[in-house]
């Protein structure tokens, strides 16, 4: 299943410096069992999102825990258009 993890950094220069150092040290790579499909960060460095894929919610939580001390995170399951169309095909009133 695919998940969108959004992140928001508080405007704290010490936390930002720690987040940058941690990212450079680790590459921001999720644990084994979670695939990073893409990451985008806003030009002002205030927020961004990761597109992740996993069937293991515990591993997803592990990844969030690695960053939750430095930024606010939100994780939500997402569907691609083809998956959404299949749902509509099964349940939409005709």
TrEMBL record:
Pfam families: DUF3303 (PF11746). InterPro entries: DUF3303. It comes from the Bacteria. This is DUF3303 domain-containing protein. It comes from Cupriavidus lacunae. The lineage of its organism: Bacteria, Pseudomonadati, Pseudomonadota, Betaproteobacteria, Burkholderiales.
């Amino acid at each position: 299943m695919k998940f969108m993890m959004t992140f928001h950094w508080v405007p704290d220069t010490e936390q930002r410096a720690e987040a940058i150092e941690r990212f450079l040290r680790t590459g921001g790579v999720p644990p084994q069992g979670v695939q990073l499909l893409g990451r985008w960060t806003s030009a002002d460095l205030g927020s961004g999102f990761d597109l992740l894929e996993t069937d293991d919610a515990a591993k997803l939580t592990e990844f969030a825990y690695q960053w939750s001390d430095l930024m606010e995170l939100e994780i939500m399951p997402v569907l691609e258009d083809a998956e959404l169309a299949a749902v509509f095909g099964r349940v939409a009133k005709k």
